[in-house]
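lol so apparently i was supposed to do this last week
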Amino acid sequence: MRQKLLILLVYTVCHHATGAAVGEHCKDYGTQFERTFTVPGEAAVLNCSLVSPDVFDTHTTPYNISWYDQRSGTELPGGAGQPWARDTMLWFLNSTLEDAGTYECILRTPSSCFKLASVLIVDPPKTGSCGRPHASIQQLIVNANGVLVCPLLTYMDHVDDFSIQWYKGCEPIHEGDKFAFVGKEKLFLKHVAVNDTGSYTCRMTFDLNGTIAYTAETIEPNVIEQWYQQPIVYEPVNETIKAGYEEHFNKTCRVFVQGKGKIDVDVFWATAVEDISINPSDRVHQAPLSKRNVENGEWLEVIIIFMKLKEEDFNQTYTCMAYSNKGIVISHFVLQPADESFIFLLVLLFAGLVLTFVTSVAAYKIFKIDIILHCRSFFPYIYTRAGSDGKIYDAYVVYPRMCWHGSGGSAEIFALHTLPEVLEKKCGYKLFIFGRDSLPGEAVVESVQENICKSRTLILLYTASTFSNLTSNLHFEQEVGMHRALVEGMLKVILVELEEITDYSRFPTSVLHVKRKQGVIQWWKVNSKRTSHPQLSPSSKFWKQVRYRMPVKSKTTCSSEKNGLLNL
Ligand SMILES: *[C@@H]1O[C@H](CO)[C@@H](O)[C@H](O)[C@H]1NC(C)=O
Ligand SMILES: *[C@@H]1O[C@H](CO)[C@@H](O)[C@H](O)[C@H]1NC(C)=O
Ligand SMILES: *[C@@H]1O[C@H](CO)[C@@H](O)[C@H](O)[C@H]1NC(C)=O
Ligand SMILES: *[C@@H]1O[C@H](CO)[C@@H](O)[C@H](O)[C@H]1NC(C)=O
Ligand SMILES: *[C@@H]1O[C@H](CO)[C@@H](O)[C@H](O)[C@H]1NC(C)=O
Ligand SMILES: *[C@@H]1O[C@H](CO)[C@@H](O)[C@H](O)[C@H]1NC(C)=O
Ligand SMILES: *[C@@H]1O[C@H](CO)[C@@H](O)[C@H](O)[C@H]1NC(C)=O
Ligand SMILES: *[C@@H]1O[C@H](CO)[C@@H](O)[C@H](O)[C@H]1NC(C)=O
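anyway here it is w/ 2-acetamido-2-deoxy-beta-D-glucopyranose bound
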């Protein structure tokens, strides 16, 4: 009968058709928003809602209500078959299509008068449908239990007796596994399914002052899928998190709720004592809840933000709570000061690397000669093989020969015996020693130049007196011939000092230049203690130095060399 429709009916009161007495001025409340629907043969009721504290003082002021048919202006009830007025209501017990129209109730108090119009709509029933043409909508939720309420009930307080019968479509509903009747007006549906959609009609039979009447209302429930399961907190995971003092820190609480439709879950951060502030200007606060719908549910996220970590934040338990009608799910984290030992470890590692590097460099400096010699013997293929440069001799040996000063003797022994003994016999170098290898009668200068050209290195042996004597010096210059070779580095020069030298003032600049650049090898130093037995082992320090400066030779190792690296 009554249907709440939020349609604003702008109704203009037609004064000549009004029930108000001539000269009576009633305050007009227009037309009631709610319209009343019925079908022919069934009851309908209009209610004059002017009896309200908003209109007048209903407790202390006496009042009379009169009903008028607005079309005719006649007062109701006017006789047999007319609607009945009872309390604030006007009852149409057996509606006809002609009853449709606007009815006006006028409420009179001793001092005032109010009027309000109500609209009655009488529609013929839809053929082929057992429900009413105007259905109301109620909501049912899938997988939950549901209740439909017959909207007619409010009027049943004013009838003498009534009973309700429910129908789904045209079929009467009986109590059972699916349905139950609750109270007088409610239909209970157990475990609602999608196929529970349909048209539900409550049909009421009532007795009003001895007259039996019928009325009905149809509900077409909106069956919606709405359910969700216990939320799952994916983050935090009851963890301990390390963070540094004064740092910015944040942690997101990530909650997933499986379900469909409206998911009513709240997520927030709290300590054991209180909720975290939601004020974004607080040092520790939580951001607003963000929700993201996915196919099978919803992700909810709330981030807790520490703008700057303070002492008091550590060792504190921060709990994320997901609150729903299924209870509370919680998970927490605890902050701990970042472990400084990690940084310490890094520093240590770095220091270790630096130390290793420094030691390696130092070791290389110290063992350079051994390493190079070792490499030459183990990986000969990476060095240019002898002979590939068209030279014949590995070294051209220059030594002071024209000596009347005594020291020449030892130089000649060294040049003609010691040197060939080690370098030629033991290590396989090919030397050119002037006087031994030069042909007699050869022009000295040409021979020197030619053979130096055929050599890869120049071994220059000298004693303290070698350059002090003008003759010897001249001879030397002549023999060596080429200042260029010495100074311009065209030939590699190995200087071997046979005696301890204190005064270099007489030395030619070219020799001093080479000495400064490459250093000298001092035979007298290693050999001073054992003059009787000259050091002849190729793996002794002296010979290693010589070998290191010598070009790479075709023979890879020296015969008496056991282990070049260990034999320092
Ligand atoms: C009828 O209207 C009055 C106010 O005038 C209200 O108090 C009452 O509840 C209404 N009756 C029904 C059944 O809606
Ligand atoms: C109500 O109606 C009766 C009879 O018509 C009348 O005697 C009475 O004064 C009225 N009361 C008010 C408040 O108008
Ligand atoms: C309503 O009126 C019609 C004829 O006007 C009659 O046939 C029907 O029985 C009546 N219904 C009730 C409930 O009185
Ligand atoms: C409605 O659907 C439920 C499951 O969703 C099923 O158990 C029930 O038998 C169905 N009822 C009808 C009348 O089809
Ligand atoms: C109710 O019925 C009685 C007799 O049973 C009658 O006197 C009275 O007028 C009826 N009331 C209405 C509102 O029709
Ligand atoms: C975290 O601890 C709470 C109780 O404090 C517990 O209910 C929850 O299951 C724990 N979560 C995880 C991921 O262990
Ligand atoms: C959370 O912290 C990360 C880095 O830790 C930062 O990139 C991000 O902007 C922070 N978020 C908020 C809301 O402060
Ligand atoms: C946190 O607690 C541990 C022991 O549980 C303690 O050693 C540490 O000092 C505490 N740190 C702070 C910042 O309170």
